[in-house]
């Protein structure tokens, strides 16, 4: 048996699989490509003669699956939306995935952004380094205290839109700081939200009441434009907004104007409508915005997490057991 792995994978994970199959590892990060399209990937699978295919960014659509001879497909993502699961199911090919692999990483970055916004960490750091902020007397210190002292996280009402793996971890981190929480997620039982220390509310109420709004919901047809111009306008004067989910969830024009005008005190983004993001992006140019180039799930720990989850699934399949995270469980009976 032979496996083609284009996902980033830990050495330990590769060694564990190598005990059961020949491994061809072509890490997409090392190869400097973002993804292979379905036709390219199909050609590669046939060239290698792979029985098992494990990807991260590549698109495993119909052209990559039909006639491939694959026996197992793995997607190192929380949602295997880069796999043609229906086609794989038609051909009785199990599809594994790795839920919550990057949940801690994104939650950590969310808290980092939030603390940096509330305490003006980046702004003060840059002004000190550039020499713009100097202290020649007590008056200068008083000015800095008044302008850049910021706020404590525990005193802010945090609204979390989307209460899945990432949203729950953000909630746990905010609770550790003493922050009261609002949650909107129509797919989560209200009692589950309360058990996590959050108040479940409708989205319009969350947008009106929260001092901080942070997005952690998927980019689905129903969610696109979820944060509309009307909802942005309803936010508190001086509130903060974070988006580490997807840009398509938000009315960009309305959000930009709310930040430019000062209606919102600040924002942080790890996702943009045009990626990779550039320095001349209008949001990046705003002084009250913190930006990162879609690095939320890019920690080295995420590679370890996804490798461990995927290896466990592959070994279960080899041993005739049903893997825990299987997108099409019907193929294994």
Could you characterize what this model shows?
With 333 residues, the protein is an alpha/beta fold. The chain has helices at 11-18, 38-48, 62-65, 85-90, 103-118, 121-130, 138-148, 165-176, 190-195, 203-209, 229-233, 252-261, 300-318; strands at residues 2-5, 22-25, 52-55, 72-75, 95-97, 158-161, 181-184, 198-200, 212-215, 239-243, 264-269, 289-291. It folds into two domains: 2-101 and 300-332, 3-Layer(aba) Sandwich (Rossmann fold); 103-291, NAD(P)-binding Rossmann-like Domain (Rossmann fold, 3-Layer(aba) Sandwich), CATH 3.40.50.720. It has 13 helices and twelve strands. It has a seven-stranded parallel sheet, sandwiched between helices. The chain has a five-stranded parallel sheet with strand order 2-1-3-4-5. The chain is elongated and about 75 Å long. The mean pLDDT is 95.
Condensed summary:
The chain is an alpha/beta fold and 333 residues long.
Tell me the distance between the termini.
Answer: 23 Å
In the predicted model, the low-confidence regions spanning at least 5 consecutive residues are none
Q: Mind describing the biggest β-sheet? A: 7 strands, parallel
CATH homologous superfamily grouping of the largest domain:
NAD(P)-binding Rossmann-like Domain
Q: Percent helix among the residues?
A: 25-40%
Average pLDDT over all residues:
95
CATH topology term of the largest domain: Rossmann fold
**What would you call the shape?**
elongated
Give the SSE string: EHEHEHEHEHHHEHEHEHEHEHEEH
Would you identify the CATH architecture of the largest domain? 3-Layer(aba) Sandwich
- Number of domains as seen in the coordinates: 2
- Strand tally is 12
Q: What would CATH call the class of the largest domain?
A: Alpha Beta
- What is the overall number of helices? 13
Structural class given helices, strands, pairing?
alpha/beta
Gyration radius, in Å: 23 Å
Largest sheet strand order: 8-7-6-9-10-11-12
Beta percentage is 5-15%
């Amino acid at each position: 048996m032979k496996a083609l792995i284009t996902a980033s994978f830990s050495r330990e994970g590769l060694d564990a699989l190598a005990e059961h199959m020949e491994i061809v590892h072509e890490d997409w990060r090392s190869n400097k490509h973002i993804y292979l399209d379905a036709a390219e990937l199909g050609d590669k699978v046939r060239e290698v003669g792979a029985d098992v295919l494990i990807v991260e960014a590549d698109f495993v659509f119909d052209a990559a699956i039909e006639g491939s001879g694959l026996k197992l497909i793995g997607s190192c993502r929380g949602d295997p939306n880069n796999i043609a699961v229906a086609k794989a199911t038609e051909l009785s090919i199990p599809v594994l995935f790795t839920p919550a692999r990057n949940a801690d990483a994104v939650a950590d970055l969310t808290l980092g952004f939030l603390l940096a916004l509330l305490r003006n960490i980046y702004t003060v750091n840059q002004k000190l380094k550039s020499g713009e902020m100097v202290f020649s007397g007590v008056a200068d210190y008083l000015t800095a205290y008044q302008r850049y002292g910021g706020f404590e996280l525990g005193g802010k009402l945090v609204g979390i839109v989307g209460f899945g793996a990432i949203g729950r971890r953000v909630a746990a981190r905010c609770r550790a700081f003493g922050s009261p929480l609002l949650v909107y997620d129509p797919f989560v039982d209200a009692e589950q939200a309360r058990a996590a220390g959050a108040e479940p509310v409708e989205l319009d109420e969350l947008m009106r009441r929260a001092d901080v709004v942070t997005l952690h919901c998927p980019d689905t047809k129903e969610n696109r434009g979820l944060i509309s111009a009307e909802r942005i306008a309803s936010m508190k004067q001086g509130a903060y907004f974070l988006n580490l989910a997807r840009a398509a969830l938000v009315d960009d024009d309305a959000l930009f104007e709310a930040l430019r005008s000062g209606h919102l005190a600040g924002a942080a983004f790890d996702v943009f409508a045009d990626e990779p993001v550039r320095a001349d992006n209008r949001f990046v140019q705003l002084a009250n915005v913190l930006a990162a180039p879609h690095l939320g799930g890019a920690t080295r720990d995420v590679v370890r997490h996804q490798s461990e989850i995927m290896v466990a699934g592959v070994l279960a399949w080899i041993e005739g057991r049903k893997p825990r995270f299987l997108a099409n469980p019907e193929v294994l009976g």
